[in-house]
Amino acid sequence: MRFRVLGPLEIVDVDGRWRPVGGSRQRVLLAALLLKANTPVSVDELAETVWDGAPPAGCAQTLRSHVMRLRRSLPAQDAVVLGTRAPGYVLTVADGELDAPLFELLCHEAAEQLRAGAWSAAADTAERALTLWRAQPLLDVPSRLLSETVVPRWEQLRLQVLECRFDAELRLGRHHVLVPQLQALVAAHPLHERFRAQLMLSLSRTGHRVEALAVYRSARRTLIDELGVEPGPEMTRVHQSILSGDDPVFDRAA
Fold first, then answer.
1. What pLDDT shows up at residue 22?
2. Which of 91, 149, 188, 202 is most solvent-facing, going by the fewest CB within 10 Å?
3. CA distances (Å), origin 225, targets 102, 192, 220, 230, 240
4. Per-residue exposure over 146-170, b if at least 16 CB sit within 10 Å of its own CB, e if not
5. What is residue 248's predicted lDDT score, i.e. its pLDDT?
6. E strand intervals along 176-223
7. Domain range holding 80?
């Protein structure tokens, strides 16, 4: 059995094709079980999640009905992966069958490789992690509880592994190809200083010193207007290096 949560919730059907899970409550139920895979989840906890903090009276019986429907939606030979075990239900998931733990593992591996100076391996591992990210996690799972408690950590990990990939590729001298990617990320995350510093470095090393300095000025205005703070030491170091005509560097990339 295989599951994907880094985007719309999907499972593999009997023909090996990814398909969505029908029924909004079933999607929330499956997501809640996947997030605690191989661990029994109590009926009360599942009800709290499935009804988004407001389970109705008699919800235990209704939850059993949702579990039955979810079992039927699984490929026949895999329906046994969803079992009943006190104090509730447990979903059995083997290593590699769920995308989120693999994503987290690859993110940590890429960071370790970067710290070890294995630039090419770090870039490749980070890219493998990023290919697992299809869209906002649990995109079609209507649960405020899950979106507020689980999704932010994955989104932060994605930003970190993007930083890691850009750091590694900057070490490998791939400045030209990084500029448009970093420009898009800066536009999407205007307060994220790391991407700004990486963009400044990429622009400077591709001969666009004026544009690199403009990135700093824009970042400074945004940070002052939005947060009331000056750029941090990382961006400041890159900025000063560009002004002095040196090759700009910062802590994790050069």
1. 86
2. 188
3. 39, 14, 8, 10, 22
4. bbeebbeebeebbebbbbbbbbbbb
5. 64
6. none
7. 3-91
* Closest among 170, 76, 158 to 120, alpha carbons compared: 170
pLDDT in the model for residue 13: 76
Quick one: average pLDDT of 110-133?
97
CATH number at residue 228: 1.25.40.10
- Give the model's pLDDT for residue 246: 74
Lowest mean pLDDT among 55-64, 75-84, 159-168: 75-84
CB atoms within 10 A of CB 221: 10
Burial letters for 119-141: b for 16+ Cβ neighbours within 10 Å, e otherwise?
Answer: bebbbbbbebbbebbeeebbeeb
DSSP symbols for 234-253? HHHHHHHHHHHTS---BTTB
* Three-state DSSP class for residue 91: strand
In this prediction, residues 192-207 reach a mean pLDDT of: 94
pLDDT in tens, 74-118: 876 555 588 889 999 999 998 989 999 999 999 999 999 999 999
Helix, strand, or coil here: 94?
coil
Rounded CA gap, 223 and 235, in Å?
12
- Number of domains the chain contains: 2
